[in-house]
């Protein structure tokens, strides 16, 4: 078992792992309110940030108004060797690019040839969306 803790950006190996269609569990700090992790789709960028799309009035966005810190934990699925990556850091909310992010992630996670999934994506794209961007300040990893 190897656990590492660094204050550096995501490694190329981290980004390859995070490029898989895995769910991340996002927690926002929210001040005195305990974190309430939510499963999310995410994208690790070449710049080293982690991004999700969400509604401009979602719980993620409302809580970050009090405390802009967030973390995301991504784990390998059952049947694979144990591995997880946790990214913690401050966040920004970006008003542009959320629909393009949603499109890319839907292509990763869903079969868009399926009419039901195509309709689900159309519904997401019909709503206002923003990008929540986590700027890593700490990256922890565990691998067996």
Name of the CATH class: Mainly Beta
The number of distinct β-strands equals: 8
- Examine the secondary-structure arrangement and name the CATH architecture: Roll
Low-pLDDT residue spans: none
Average the pLDDT over all residues and give the rounded result.
Answer: 91
Q: SSE order in H/E notation?
A: EHEEEEHEEHHE
CATH topology-level name: Pnp Oxidase, Chain A
Radius of gyration: 15 Å
Describe the protein's architecture and organization.
Strands 1, 2, 3, 4, 5, 6, 7 and 8 form an eight-stranded antiparallel β-sheet that branches. This protein is 26% helix and 37% strand. Strand 4 and strand 5 form a beta hairpin. It has a single domain, classed as Roll (Pnp Oxidase, Chain A). The protein is globular. The protein is built from four helices and eight strands.
């Amino acid at each position: 078992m190897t656990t590492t803790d660094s204050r550096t950006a995501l490694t190329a190996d981290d980004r390859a792992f995070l490029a898989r269609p895995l769910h991340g569990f996002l927690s926002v700090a929210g001040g005195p309110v305990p974190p309430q992790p939510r499963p999310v789709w995410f994208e690790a960028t070449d710049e080293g940030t982690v991004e999700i799309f969400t509604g401009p009035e979602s719980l993620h966005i409302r809580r970050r108004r009090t405390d802009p810190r967030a973390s995301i934990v991504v784990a390998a699925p059952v049947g694979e060797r144990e591995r997880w990556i946790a990214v913690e850091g401050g966040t920004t909310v970006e008003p542009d690019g959320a629909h393009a992010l949603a499109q890319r992630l839907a292509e990763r996670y869903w079969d868009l040839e399926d009419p039901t999934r195509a309709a689900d994506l159309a519904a997401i794209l019909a709503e206002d969306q923003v990008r929540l961007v986590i700027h890593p300040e700490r990256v922890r990893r565990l691998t067996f």
